[in-house]
């Protein structure tokens, strides 16, 4: 059995793709995942939900790691938040495979807390560390692979792994959909109206306010109800747009629910909306395109038979190429209401043929770990 040590920058169940990956990773590898090392100023060692040790310096962390690593240990980083520490870990543990999963946008934000470097310098630093110290960088889409190549990450360092859907839960949700929907309609007095669902981190690149400005023009809003889930720095702008432009009985906001509750809420909808943009973000004297690289919530929707209204941003179109009939991928946001009305008036039968299950993801990880250990130890 491999002893897998997971490195992260948080222990919360915040709404988001990286957080969902971490939660599923720990659940799957809990017998092999000896611990979770969390960096948030100090370094905490977690087993389950319990902190069993806390260290101030990386030297102390390395001493701890030396006491628990074996010839079958894997260092797995849930994102690039540890990029500054990786060269030290590489030097101290040359025999341990280092694997990083990148969400795509974190390449540009990994060194955000270092004030004395430009964005270009930070990206160059991240690329050098990945190329010199990391065995494998896991990307989640062709879009991410292409962008990583463009900034200089070596091709042989990268693999693509897509997916991350709890198919046991989605199967239960499908079986219980009518009951769950009836309970929602009764609780929120929606009278069985056509239900739009948005479940998202509330970040500018998600384009939610822009989508609401388009949605308010729809002449059929009295037939619909909007269910909104999530949290983030755009929360006040989103709620203000809803309060100003829509009747109070048109929308329901449930806040930052757990990931499993979000997936269940997606399952009761009639359509799932992903309004992500290719958002030009200005940081550290430079700009990068912050956008949707994979779209886990869209995968969760189509796995449950819920059609999509999605903006063609980042890696979104890859979902539509991988499947036959999953909704509308919009080249122009002003097409959203027309496509929404088609689904409302004509119905829509989703035909998703790709397997996005966690089982498939972790099966790939297991093969990757075996290959890396064989390369390290012969």
UniProtKB/TrEMBL annotation:
Residues 184-345 form the Glycosyl transferase family domain. It holds the Pfam family Glycos_transf_1. InterPro entries: Glyco_trans_1, Glycosyltransferase_grp1. Gene3D superfamilies: Glycogen Phosphorylase B. This is Glycosyltransferase.
């Amino acid at each position: 059995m491999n002893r897998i040590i997971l490195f992260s920058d948080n222990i919360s169940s915040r709404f988001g793709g990286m957080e969902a990956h971490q939660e599923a990773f720990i659940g799957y590898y809990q017998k092999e995942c000896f611990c979770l090392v969390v960096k948030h100023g100090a370094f905490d060692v977690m087993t389950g939900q319990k902190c069993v040790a806390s260290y101030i310096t990386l030297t102390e962390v390395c001493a701890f790691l030396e006491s628990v690593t074996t010839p079958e240990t894997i260092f797995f980083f849930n994102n690039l938040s540890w990029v500054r520490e990786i060269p030290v870990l590489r030097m101290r543990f040359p025999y341990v495979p280092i694997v990083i999963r990148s969400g795509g946008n974190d390449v540009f934000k990994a060194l955000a807390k270092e004030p004395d470097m430009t964005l270009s310098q930070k990206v160059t630093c991240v690329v050098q560390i990945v190329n010199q110290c990391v065995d494998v960088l896991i990307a989640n889409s062709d879009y991410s692979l292409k962008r990583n190549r463009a900034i200089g990450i070596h091709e042989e360092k990268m693999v693509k792994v897509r997916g991350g859907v709890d198919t046991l839960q989605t199967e239960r949700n499908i079986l219980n959909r009518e009951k769950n929907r009836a309970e929602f309609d009764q609780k929120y007095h929606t009278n069985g109206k056509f239900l739009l669902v948005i479940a998202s981190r509330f970040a500018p690149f998600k384009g939610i306010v822009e989508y609401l400005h388009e949605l308010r023009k729809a002449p059929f809003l009295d037939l619909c109800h909007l269910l909104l889930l999530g949290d983030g720095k755009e929360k006040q702008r989103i709620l203000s747009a809803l309060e100003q432009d829509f009747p109070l009985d048109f929308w329901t906001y449930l806040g930052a629910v757990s990931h499993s509750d979000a997936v269940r809420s997606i399952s009761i909808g009639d359509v799932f909306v992903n309004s992500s943009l290719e958002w030009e973000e200005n940081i550290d004297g430079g700009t990068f395109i912050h956008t949707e690289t994979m779209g886990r919530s869209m995968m969760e929707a189509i796995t449950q038979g819920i059609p999509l209204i999605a903006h063609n941003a980042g890696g979104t179109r890859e979902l539509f190429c991988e499947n036959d009939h999953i909704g509308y991928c919009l080249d122009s946001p002003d097409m959203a209401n027309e496509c929404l009305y088609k689904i409302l008036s004509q119905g829509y039968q989703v035909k998703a043929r790709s397997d996005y299950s966690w089982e498939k993801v972790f099966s790939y990880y297991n093969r990757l770990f075996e290959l890396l250990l064989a390369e390290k130890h012969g």
